[in-house]
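Q: How would the structure tokens look for this protein?
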Amino acid sequence: MKIVQGILILLAFYGVGTMASKWLHIPMPGNLLGMLLLTLCLCMGWIRMDWVEQASAFLVRHMMLFFVPIIVGVASYMNWIAKDPWSIILSMVLGPMIVMLVTGRVVQWYLHRQKHKAEPSVKQEGRALDA
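A: Here is the predicted structure in token form.
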């Protein structure tokens, strides 16, 4: 049941991202905007991780099924790909690198924020001792 709930939440963010991208003319794919909104809601604590964790694990476990139509589609464009292979290769190499760098920085920022949120700061401790 939690998987269905999580998938519904993920689909809701996908739908909101797609509609926001279309209606607000944001030059960003709707699915990416939905993921950014989901990340923001997770960081703010509006969506709990355990609500979407099982659904995410399920979808990642069966991710290869989602690539079958893409692979078949790529095979139908082999003539176009053969004309300009370097643009495809560069996008395949640079795209994931940029995504990993941005994701790593966001996670570092989030963990740093959580660490300082959990521990009282030195200034606050000093003020408490002065009072």
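The helical segments are 2-23, 30-44, 49-61, 63-76, 78-83, 85-118, 122-130.

The chain has seven helices and no strands.

Upvote if useful.
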